[in-house]
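Feature request disguised as a bug report, sorry. It would help if multi-protein outputs had a clear separator. Right now it looks like this:
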Amino acid sequence: MKVKIVKPDTTLFEGDAKLVQLPGTNGLFAIMENHAPIISSLAAGRVRIVLPDDKEQTFDINAGVVKGQQNEVLILVQ
């Protein structure tokens, strides 16, 4: 699936991923390929991305929102 993490002034990540783990306001949750459409607010915490080669990247965020549909995940963060 395509994942993009954007701050107001820059793009932190843009690429393919197998899994995205996010700090939701009600706790951690993950989005995988073919996930149902989702929109959620995000709390301060760490976004974890598992790449297609099983390597991981993490990004610390203060807050944000995520929108996922049709194997495209857009994460807007502060």
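(second protein starts here, but nothing in the output says so)
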Amino acid sequence: MSWVIGSGLTRYGKHEGSNTLALMTQATDLAMADAGTVRGDIDGLICGYSTTLPHLMLSTVFAEHYGLHPRYSHAVQLGGATGFGLVMLAHLLVTSGAAKRVLVVGAENRMTGQSRDSAIQVLAQVGHPVYEVPLGATIPAYYGLVASRYMNEFGSTEADFAELAVTMRKHAALHEGAQFRSPISVVDVMASRSIASPLKMLDCCPVSDGGCAFVISAEPEGANPVRISGAAQHHNAQHISALASLTHVGAGACAASALKDAGRTLADVEHAAIYDSFTITLTMLLEEIGLAPRGRAGVLAREGHFDADGAMPLNLHGGLLSYGHCGVGGAMAHLAEAHLQMTGRAGERQAPKAGVTLLHGDGGVLSSHVSLVMESAA
């Protein structure tokens, strides 16, 4: 058993003059203060990677920078699933007794620390080096292909995708740290510039600077502990050209395993935090996991199903689509919001019920999956 006893989330967007280490520090300061811990309390450190600071030993570099002396240190690379993968590893470490309190941190100045062309080129390398990358595809192009096939198979429309973008922006409007807070409509999404048909600009998450951190403990310490009761991973084919199906990419199996680990079922879930790099990503994950019927995620969004007072509150900080995406820290913001929701500290975004939360992250092009189940201490 493990507990999230502190979380720290910076605003996402432009942090001019801040590098990866500075943003990691800012997020860590916030998480340590929230947990009521000091440097000497931390005996484990897990971080992700940074494309703007591609050091071979980022975890120990940060330990030195921040003044930590952990007995366990580790850096992880799982694409967009990294953030939840870090938390799962911390959960396993404290459950096993290998560490008592683990700092988990991810941050990057991806918006100001590299050119647009460089960012596109780096991310495109998740493609197959022989069969995909030489053809010039980008991450949006891969997801555009997936979206076209999904529309054909399940009847989803571009307007359905747009409904999810509108919902995420509505949620972000209530969070002062979100990169984009101005309301948008389905008409706005549909009229936005084409990026990779059928995906348009407002179907895609932005590039951001920012960071997020957590303190994971073996004990329910501090004022706001939340229990991690289940965790699981599933790794399908790494490359889109090797996917055998768009119906079962691994998300459903992964979420089911995490729920089983927690002794829960999907019917117990009161609040969801689901990876949303693109509207098609969120659509597919919601529907495969079982939080929406096939082809119906957008319809449910339009009906308010995913609002704070809806049947399944979802990504109430605005998700990657509107809060922002700074690499490893992108999905971690989902967990930071879950921690606030589950401890009744989300202010005007607060959902009436969030006692059992399901979180799911996706890395690469639907290739790596990590699910977590969290439960309120009460």
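Even a blank line would do. Unrelated, but nice: Residues 2-113+208-217 form a domain with the Peroxisomal Thiolase; Chain A, domain 1 fold (CATH 3.40.47.10).
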